[in-house]
Each structure stands twice: as structure tokens, then as C-alpha cells.
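Sequence in, structure out.
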Amino acid sequence: MKKKRVSFFDIFNHGVFIIFALIVILPLLITLFSSFKTSIQIARESVLAFPRPFTFENYTEVFKDGNVLVALKNSFLLVILTVIINSFLASMVAYSLSRFEFKMKRVFFFLLSVGMLLPGFIAEITRFGIIANLGVYDTIYAPLLIYVGTDLMQIYIYKQFIDQVPFSLDESAMIDGCSYFRIYWKIIFPVIIPATATLAILKSVAVLNDMFTPYLYMPSPHNATLTTMLMNYVGRSGSWSKLSAAVIVVMIPGIVLYLVFRKKILAGMAAGAVKE
């Protein structure tokens, strides 16, 4: 059997990937081990030492003092409402851009494209004033309005999917007496379900991991999300072990969500990658 020649590039390539993997994995591993240790164990042992014995007191303290259940409720309420409303609004806008011709359509689409390139914080002062004038500041409706009204990338991805649906299906439905909304609901939306599943999961993870918007627009403790709970807990924890446990608690929902639905994410991306 011929031996496979290993080039310098292969060695370098694998080495770079191993280094990047360690950069990502090691901090997570250190945080996980620290969450099961006492403060004395952390001070005496190596950060990579396996915790012996295991202690769950840190997690008990986090759930007791960190207001975790309230944060979980607020975070998942935001995720559910955002995903449902955003999916319908973005798909309807994409349907209109894909199927209808109207004045200034190219200008409108150009403005949407430019909006994806601009960082959101440049309009933060104006957005804050709008939220305050609407009277929804320090309520769950403030971040909800922001999440459902600014996802321009989702509109663009939906449009790519809808462009692949033959217009002859719309014409056949119109001949049978279907309205535009019924065409959208009965023909277009079922076809873009793979895209909806993918975008919903990615949006869910983004909302769960967002700290800036909930902290700025609903700072009250009873409106805390997982990320703002963690930020507020940093100053009260008093030890690295408790803080590590809080970090793991905040990470778990996003990780579970991604692991459960990762196949749908890949399937949705692959479905929209090729235009026939």
C-alpha cells in the first residue's frame, strides 16, 4: 500500500484548527469545572483540575439569589413572541418584494440592503426616543418592538426562497379565486418552512444572547433576562465559583436549542443555497 504523503500545508492547517479549537474549548472547560468547585478548591488547584468532590451549592445559590426563574420566563417569552411575529412580518414583506411591482420598489429594496450594512447603534438615540414616546420603556414590549422591526437579513433570505417558487403557482391559485393573502398562506408560507425553521432558531439564539437591548430598555429586576441577570449577578456573586455556575446556567438554553435543532439549521441553509 502506498503511504499518503503529508504536506507542510496539511500539518499547518490542522495545527491552526487545533489551536482555534483549544481557544474556544478551554475557557468553557475551565468555567464548567469551576462551577462545581468551592472557592478554596479554585484557589488551591489548577484551573483544569477535575473537581473532586463535586459540589452543587453554587448552582443552588445562583437559583436562590440570581432570580433565574424570572429571567428564564422573560427570555423565553421574548423568544417566542419575537420568532412568531418576526416570521410572519418578514415573510410578508419578502412576499411583497418578490411578487409585486410598485413605485420605488428598487429604492425600497436598496434602503433595506443599506440598512443591513449599517451598525444598529448609530440610530440608538433616535430609537430610544421613539420607545420612550410610545410609553413602552421598561416593559417587555420595548425589546420586542426592536427585535421584530429590525431584522432586515431575514427579509432578504425569505425573498431568496420565495424567488425560487414558480409564479405559475400564484397564477393557478388566482384562477381558482384565491386572494393574495390566501396565496401567501396556502402556497408561499408552506414552501418557506425550512427557511422559517432555520431563521427562527438563529433568531432565538440571538435574542437569548443579547444583553445590550434588554439592559437598556427594561432595566428593572422583574424584567431581567438571562443575560442581564448574569450581568447584575457579577457584582453580587462574591466568588468565581458562583459566577461560573451563573455563566453555565445562562449558556444552557442556547446550547440545548442549537443541539436539538442543528439539523434543521443546516437543512434550511442548504435548501436556500442553490437556485434552479
